[in-house]
Write a structure and sequence with these properties.
Blueprint lengths: L15 H5 L6 E7 L2 H12 L5 H12 L1 H7 L3 E4 L4 H7 L3 H13 L8 E3 L11 H7 L4 E3 L7 E9 L3 H12 L4 E9 L5
Helix pairs in contact: 3-6
């Protein structure tokens, strides 16, 4: 009901992570679980230069998240930014590729200048949930006036929600009323 992670019991509305931690965003949607072939595919997209995967992922997200999109009714799509050093090394931002493709399919504007990652942080994948939150403090900045009421953050993977939460907090401080997110994959949750 909140982050889109699978539930440990059918009668529950929230996953274990959402029951344990509050989030700055309203809710989100993920198309796949981050495991097996999807994990391998996403790694090729993110680190292997397979930018063309973005079209497939966006098409699946656009179809699967139709009802979610109607509920969120965002004014704009905002890709999660990567630090300029990662951009120089990788050559692209996978979240921006997804947002550009979703923009075409959903007929929504995408903004790539509002958010900036100003701190080069450690890779999140090897950190605990607490370390992830600490790692992202002051990592992002809003670079222009924000006039949107509802935004949709776009990223490739959601694990603990630390990145989405850090950006959602900033956006809400700037006046955004509702923050939603879509990701290709979502982790199973904390152990």
């Amino acid at each position: 009901m909140r982050c889109s992670k699978p539930l440990d019991h059918e009668e529950k509305e929230y996953c274990m992570d959402c029951r344990k931690h509050s989030h700055a965003y309203e809710c989100g949607f993920a198309a796949f679980l981050y495991r097996g072939e999807m994990q391998e595919s996403l790694m090729r997209f993110k680190y292997g230069g397979r930018q063309e995967y973005g079209y497939f992922y966006a098409k699946v997200l656009a179809e699967a998240a139709g009802t979610f999109l109607e509920k969120a009714c965002p004014d704009v799509l905002l890709p999660v930014p990567i630090h300029r050093l990662k951009f120089l090394k990788r050559g692209y931002n996978q979240a921006e590729i997804l947002a550009d493709q979703l923009s075409k399919l959903w007929k929504l504007p995408v903004n790539t200048t509002c958010l900036k990652r100003i701190r080069h942080t450690k890779a999140q994948k090897n950190l605990s949930p607490r370390e992830r939150r600490k790692n992202l403090r002051a990592a992002f900045q809003i670079c222009e006036a924000v006039t949107w009421k509802s935004v949709m953050l776009v990223d490739d993977i959601y694990t603990t929600g630390s990145t989405i939460d850090a950006i959602a907090e900033l956006l809400k401080e700037a006046g955004v009323e509702r923050v939603y997110f879509v990701t290709v994959c979502i982790g199973m949750g904390e152990s």
